Amino acid sequence: MMYLKKLxxxxxxxxxxxxxxxxxxxxxxxxxxxxxxxxxxxxxHLLGRGRSFRTRTLNPVINQEEGSCTVFGxxxxxxITLPIGVSRSRQGDFQFRVNSQSINNASTLAExxxxxxxxxxxxxLLDGGPKYRRQYIDWGVFHVEHQYRTVWQSFRRALxxxxxxxxxxxxxxxxxxxxxxxxxxxxxxxxxxxxxxxQELIPKIQWVMSELSSMEGLEFKHYAGWDKTKSxxxxxVSDRPRDxxxxxxxHGPHRADLRVRFNKQSANDVLSRGxxxxxxxxxxxxxxxxxxxxxxxxxxxxxxxxxSELDLQHREKVGELLYRLGAQTFITGVIPEDVVSTWPxxxxxxxxxxxxxxxxxxxxx
Length: 365
Ligand SMILES: Nc1ncnc2c1ncn2[C@@H]1O[C@H](COP(=O)(O)OP(=O)(O)O)[C@@H](O)[C@H]1O
Ligand SMILES: [Mg+2]
Prior knowledge:
The chain has 12 helices and 15 strands.
C-alpha cells in the first residue's frame, strides 16, 4: 500500500495555503470552472514527477503574486512515512527533497511516487502523434524493468551521436558503420523490452475494456520503428542517403508506435469522443493493474474531470475497477453528485472536498 497522507500546497496557480488530510482510497474534488481543481492535481504531479502536466516551463505554475511555489507531502509507503517536498522559484531554482535529502534526478522522483494521469491531454494517446504512445509504453517499461532506464538512455545517446554525424559535411563511412553497430544493438534492446512488456499489457487493456464496455473489435499492434522483416542494420545502410538528406535517422525505436484499430479501421477515425475517453481510461487502468502485479506496488491515479464525457454507467465501472485495484485515486469534476457516484457506495475510504476560489474544504459525502 502506498498513498499520500497529507498534502500542503503554497503559491501554486490560484491555490492559497492548502493543507489537506487525504484518504488512502478515493479523494473526490468538486468545484466550478476555474476554482483550482486541475491546479491541485498539478501540485501532486509536481511532487511525483518534478514537472507539471500542463506546461513545460514552470513559471506559469507559480502564483502571479508569489516568488515561488512549494508542495509538501507525507507519503505512506510500506508503513514508513516519507516526507517529500518540491519547491520552485521564479528565478528557476528547483529543490526536491525526499526524507530531507536533496534529489536531483527525475527518475528517482518518478520511482518514489509513480503517477498515472488522465486529463484532457490523454486524448492524445489516440489522436496525437506516436510520441504519446511511446511515452505511454515507456512509463510501464521504466516502472517494471529496472535495466530499461540505462538501455534507453544509452540508446538516446547513440541516436544523438548518429544524427550529429549525419550533419557533417563529409561523412566517414567507417566511422558511421561503427556508430550504426552500436545504434542497432541498443535499438534492439529497447525494442525487446517494449515488446515483452506489450505482450502483457495488451491483453490487460483488452481485459479492462471488456469490463468497462461492450465495445468489441479493438486491436493493438506495436510498430517497432522499422520493418521487422528486415534487419535494422541493412535498413540503416540502404537508407543512409535519405538519412543524410534529412539529417536525422529515419528508422529505429524512436519512431515506434502502438497502432490502435477498431473493426479494422484506425480507432482515431471511427471512435466517438466518449468511446475514446473510455479507451484511454482503460489503457491507464491496465497499466496500473500490470504495475501492481509485477511489482507489488501501487501508483497514484490523477483523474481530472473524469465525469466529463463519461456516462454514469461507465463512470461507475471505472470507479469499481480502481477500487478493486486499491490504488489511491484523485478525481475531480464540476458537479458533486457526478463525482461521488463514480466511487462504489461500499467503498468506505473516501473523502470529498469542495474547491472554491483557490481554497479547498473537506465536506461530508
Ligand atoms: N500563475 C497563476 N497565478 C494565479 N492564478 C492562476 C495562475 N495560473 C492560473 N491561474 C488561475 O487559477 C485558476 C484555477 O485554474 P484550474 O485549476 O485550471 O481550474 P479548474 O480545473 O477548477 O477549472 C484559474 O482561474 C486560472 O486563471
Ligand atoms: Mg480543470
